[in-house]
Amino acid sequence: MKKHGKGEFMQIFGSIGILLLTMMIYYLLGRAFCVKCRFDPGAPEIVCIGFFFYFAVFQVIAEIMILTGQKLHLLGMVWMAVLAVLLGTAAVIVWSDRRQQDTIPQAEQQHSVITRLLFALMIAAVLCECATAVLMQRKIGWDFAYYIGNMTTSVATDTMYVYDGSSGLMRSHLELRYALSSFYMNTAWISQLTGISALVLQKYVTGVLCVLLTNAVVYSFANEVFRGDRKKTAALVTVSVVLTIFWDVYDTTAQFLILRGYEAKAYCANVVLPMICFLLYRIWKDSKDRRRWAELLLVSFASVAVSMSSLVLVPALIVLMMLAHLLVERRWDTAIVRRALLCLMPNVCYFVVYFASTRGWLVIKV
How far does CA 273 lie from the centroid of its chain? Predict the structure, then answer.
């Protein structure tokens, strides 16, 4: 019993370390992306950008290996090598930018006592939301069994989407409804590498990470709307957290975040779609800013990697914004249409492949 308890403690301790390391990786990748695109957002938005950049690159490598029937351990080895190169390059970019910034005098910002108190309250609220997500996550039926089963089966068999996550039986062909997204395989390769259960990683590391990223998007969006007013931004995030915790209504974004944060659907509802809306709001204010379009293209490209639920929802939001902008401005803007279509292309390509698989035109044997 003592050995079993020690093993559980090590898994929890290891999971916390992975969570912190993941946040640092996202920040470094996001910061490098911002430096190259020449804009300087706040730390919460940088982490979100790093998250989408990570999955945008991971998706390319993972899908090549999934569709060609490669082993899970090979994906882990290749991705670690690629990630090492990415982090090394990102570190050089950030370090060079920091050296340039050091030569420019920076004005120190003085924050009032009220601002500091509101920020302390916001941080406490977010930590409470993380604890709530950990304590209240539920094993909800078939979805839970299937998604967790996919990861644990992949780790045990050293394969990717070859075996059915629910029954454990070998598939005759790849189920592209799931195999076109690499989200769960990211947890699988980490589990195989570290020895920490995929169940623990997905439910607690991925669940808490979903809470943190959700609040990072809310903070960034509020900061943009309130034009940098830190007090109003902190207050809005705190209110958002309170509403999320106590909004006990089935099939809402709050319910997915608190009870099912380990699922890709929760990321789609609470991270991907709000981030798309945030970027579209910025583009609406200044549609000529190419940096915002680049950020939107990144999020759009990574959206399916994070969740297949983004397949149609993300393009729908972009099309609605484009049509609304054209109607309000009452003129045809070729540049906006061209950039919007470019942002639509990743999801359109995924949809064509997915549709072909549903019609039986595209079948990939395992």
Answer: 10
Structure tokens at 86: 């990415």
Q: CB within 8 A of 13, min separation 6: which ones?
A: none
Token look-up 């019993």 returns 1
Q: How far apart are CA 256 and CA 274, in angstroms?
A: 14
Pick from 297, 294, 340, 334: which is nearest to 321 by CA? 340
**Cα–Cα distance for residue pair 90/79, rounded to 1 Å:** 16
Tokens of 28: 């470094």
- How many Cβ atoms from other residues are within 10 Å of residue 205's Cβ? 22
**First vs last C-alpha separation in the chain:** 41
Other Cβ atoms less than 10 A from the Cβ of 40: the count is 12
Q: Mean pLDDT of successive 10-residue segments in the chain (366 residues)?
A: 60 91 97 92 95 97 94 96 97 89 61 88 94 76 78 93 86 90 95 92 92 96 93 94 80 80 90 95 89 94 95 94 85 86 94 93 87
Helix (H) or strand (E) holding 346: helix 334-358
